[in-house]
Design goal:
Bound molecules: zinc ion
Largest interface: A-B, 20 and 19 residues
Strand content of chain A: 15-25%
Number of domains of chain A: 2
Order of helices and strands of chain B: HHEEEEEEEE
Structural class of chain A: alpha/beta
Radius of gyration of chain A: 19 Å
Shape of chain A: globular
Distance between the termini of chain B: 31 Å
CATH topology of the largest domain in chain B: OB fold (Dihydrolipoamide Acetyltransferase, E2P)
CATH architecture of the largest domain in chain A: 3-Layer(aba) Sandwich
Shape of chain B: globular
Number of strands of chain B: 8
CATH architecture of the largest domain in chain B: Beta Barrel
Strand content of chain B: 35-45%
Oligomer: heterodimer
CATH class of the largest domain in chain B: Mainly Beta
Largest sheet of chain A: 9 strands, mixed
Chain lengths: 354, 132
């Protein structure tokens, strides 16, 4: 395709909960979290939600782009933890980056892959000339029932990518989105019905017939479509429901451990759902050099995977095109630990009398 | 305490993007918006202008006894922020280490829930500040 990424932004909330503290709260083995490859997870403060995360990521992307936000023709926010069941987060983001009123906007939901579905929509619209710039965002807060296994991994965060058509010579792009391929089936591995407060999941069923089948299906599909093999990629980014699945699926597909490491963020902040693979991509773009190739593949329960192949462009080295701080530096520096009780209080999970 | 929808809606540009006004005659900026320039009166020429999102703490206080709707957030910092264009605004200071919240500390605007109300209510979003 003749489209690519103009800029990107990310956001990870400051508060962290240690998975060992979650284990203590529920009388579980202290190393449950470590066994899942997650030592601690990022969680929002009492006044944050997936919409505020999305705004912060969007603002960073717009600032790095140097464009006039009035030229953004589409904003899509992918999330499974929307603050409203009815009322879009995308309009709030649009207003907060001064992109209103001439644009189209909507919220998307596809478990953890709604953000990459947003990327595909923006790619198609930019390539066809329907829009000049499209902003695709993946954002989620930690949604997990207290005491459930999910609680050890469910974190919060967001990432945004601004997508446009190549303006000629790729001068406007930091990376070309060469191709995309999706693999989708009806697989009930993880869900939340309209008025349920927390998602439910099918335990071990979320592995082989869900995550692995769809990620492998999408990656093999894009290999075939593009005639490429794992050796053609310098970096690979997968959806990261825990710290273990991405390295395992990388090995199954023939990628080296080294190519996975830079984009593997879940061990430090937990699974950020719609933000997960996109924050991983942001971390790779933080360090990637012009000419390098990236393969990215999301996974959303329900189920589906979107795979993308990217080539890093010279534009990435222009001053100010990358955020002023890398994802990894930011999450290491900007953190404050909270107790398990502090975390569930902030997420409004403690019942109290009005 | 829930704010009227019309009031939340009217203050969106102000709360999301720190939109105030700038007087093209005396070159001073004002936030929140004024309809008449306090310096030039009728001779002033006010245009909409976004305030800078960075500044420093001019004065602050740690709140232990909060008004209704904020009871569960105590203790929290409130501050008068002097923006880079000298305009002073009142705001909460969040996500900051306690010993770094002091007069002169550099801050930047962040986007947060200002009032969430109850399940049936509209959520009011807006600026707060954090020490950088
Ligand atoms: Zn004046």
């Amino acid at each position: 395709m003749n489209v690519g990424i103009v800029s990107y932004g990310y956001y990870v909330p400051r508060l962290r909960v240690k998975t060992a503290d979650i284990a203590v709260a529920w009388n579980k083995e202290k190393d449950v979290g470590e066994a899942l490859g997650v030592k601690e997870k990022a969680v929002g403060a009492w006044d944050e939600d997936s919409c505020t995360f999305a705004v912060e990521a969007a603002r960073m992307a717009v600032q790095c782009s140097g464009i006039n936000s009035q030229e953004i023709g589409a904003i899509y926010v992918g999330s499974e933890s929307k603050p409203y069941a009815v009322k879009p987060s995308a309009t709030i983001v649009a207003e907060a980056i001064s992109a209103t009123p001439t644009l189209t906007a909507a919220d998307l939901e596809f478990a953890c892959k709604a953000g990459t579905a947003a990327m595909q929509m923006c790619m198609g619209m930019a390539e066809s000339g329907m829009i000049k710039y499209g902003l695709a965002i993946g954002s989620d807060t930690a949604q997990a029932q207290p005491g459930d296994a999910l609680e050890f991994t469910a974190g919060g965060g967001a990432a945004a990518v601004l997508i446009a058509k190549d303006s000629g010579g790729k001068a406007n792009l930091i990376a070309t989105l060469n191709d995309t391929y999706s693999f989708t089936t009806d697989t009930p591995d993880f869900w939340r019905r309209q008025h349920a407060e927390f998602p439910s999941h099918a335990g071990r069923f979320t592995g082989e017939p869900a995550y692995f089948k769809h990620v492998i299906g999408a990656v093999k599909g894009i290999f075939e479509k593009t005639g490429s093999t794992p050796k053609d990629y310098d970096y690979v980014v997968f959806h990261q429901p825990n710290g273990k699945f991405p390295t395992r699926v990388a090995k199954m597909l023939g990628f080296s451990d080294a190519s996975v490491k830079q984009g593997l963020i879940t061990p430090f902040i937990g699974n950020t759902y719609s933000g997960s693979s996109m924050i991983g991509l942001a971390s790779v773009l933080d360090v990637a050099k012009p000419g390098q190739k990236i393969l990215m593949c999301s996974y959303g329960s329900g189920s589906g995977s979107d795979a993308f192949t990217l080539t890093v462009e010279k534009g990435i080295e222009k001053p100010g095109k990358r955020p002023s701080e890398s994802v990894l530096d930011y999450i290491n520096r900007n953190k404050e630990y909270t107790s398990y009780v502090g975390y569930i209080r902030n997420r409004n999970k403690i019942k109290h009398l009005e | 305490m829930v704010q009227a929808i019309s009031r939340i809606w009217r203050s969106i540009k102000q709360r999301y993007n720190l939109e105030g006004v700038h007087c093209e005659v005396c070159k001073e900026s004002f936030f929140p918006k004024r309809t008449i320039c306090p310096n030039c009166r009728r001779k002033g020429k006010l245009v909409d202008a976004k305030m800078p999102h960075t500044g420093k703490i001019y004065s602050y206080s740690l709140v232990y006894s909060a008004p209704a709707g904020f009871e569960y957030e105590v203790p929290y910092f409130v501050a008068i922020i002097e923006l880079d264009n000298k305009v002073k605004i009142f705001s909460q200071v969040v996500d900051s280490e306690v010993d770094k919240v002091k007069i002169g500390a550099k801050v930047k605007a962040v986007f947060r829930r200002v009032q969430a109300g109850k399940e049936e209510d509209v959520i009011a979003y807006g600026y707060k500040f954090t020490v950088v």
